[in-house]
Each structure stands twice: as C-alpha cells, then as structure tokens.
Amino acid sequence: MPSDTQLIFADHVGRFYTRRYGFPPMAGRLLGYLFVCDPPQQTIDELGEALLASRSAITGAVKLLEGYRMARRTRMAGERVDRVSLDPASQQPQNFDSTLHREHAALFREGLALLADAPPERRAPLEEMVALADFLSERLPALLDEWHTHRDELRARHTKKPDREEDVHHD
Fold first, then answer.
1. Tens digit of pLDDT at every position of the chain (171 positions)
2. Is the dihedral of CA 103, 106, 108, 114 positive or negative?
C-alpha cells in the first residue's frame, strides 16, 4: 500500500506534467508513482489499487507513457501478467538531438521564404525561431557531452566502495 507522501508526490508530478506537457492527469500521476513505488515493477491491478484508478485508466496511461519511452512493460518467465516500470531511457535527456533543431530551422526557413517580400516586423518571429533552432543545434551536442560526464561521475559515486576498512560504517 502506498504511503500518503508517495501519493502526494504522484499528484504533484501529475499536475506538473498536465500543466507543462498536456499529459492526462492519470499519466502524470502514474509516472510520479513509478518513480517512488516499491517494488519498482507493478502490475496494472497493483497500480490501479494504489492510485485508486480503473484498470482502463491505468492501461491508457501506460500506453501513453510507453509512447514517450517513459514506462515499459516486462513479463517475468512463468507469469501471466505484465509488470510496469520506468523505462531506463526515460532518465536520458530528451530533445538533445541536434537534428531535431536543424529540422526546425529548415522548416522555419521555409516559412521565411514565403515571407520574402514581407516587412521585417512580419518576418521577425520566424527569424528568431531560425536563430534559436540554429543556436540549439550547435550548442546541444556539447551540453549533452557535458551531461554524460556529469552523470557518469554521479553514477560512480553511487557505486563506489570504501577504499579502507575505517571508511565502512557499521550500525
């Protein structure tokens, strides 16, 4: 049974993803709950019971999160039910693909071509979008490399074993 604090966190994530990304509230709540539930793999029925939601609401939320590579289903050998968990890909930076921003720039340049004879103030919004897309496509690869270095250092700290016996704390 989830704790009240876990459910409150799930609700906060749900509201955030609804407000910022237009997710249905249940999908955001499910995402939040998957971050804190124990065990980290849950059946559809367990998720429905925990979040006080119908099986169909949970299934729809899982499908949406799978589409965004934020959740995944797995099935253990011999089991007849899927287990839902966070997709490890969800912890990777999203929208850091510079080709996406190059495509945006090309798309906005196409719009600029349509406004070739328009006054500068009419062209300005598209020119800014081209400039932003160009800027992001140039800068994001370096930022992504920097993130990977930082993430690897963080992971190394989590897995590092004490070097000396006196560094080991006994309770």
1. 888 999 999 999 999 999 999 999 999 999 999 999 999 999 999 999 999 999 999 999 999 999 999 999 999 888 899 999 999 877 777 778 888 899 999 999 999 999 999 999 999 999 999 999 999 999 999 999 999 999 899 989 988 766 655 555 444
2. negative
Structure tokens at 12: 């906060």
Both tokens assigned to 32: 């939040």
In angstroms, what is the C-alpha Rg of the chain? Answer: 22
Q: Distance between CA atoms of 136 and 130, rounded to whole angstroms?
A: 10
CA 72/CA 49 separation, integer angstroms: 19
**Counting Cβ atoms within 10 Å, is residue 165 exposed (0-12), middle (13-18) or buried (19+)?**
exposed
pTM (predicted TM-score): 0.72
Find, among 36, 35, 83, 89, the residue nearest to 62 by Cα: 83
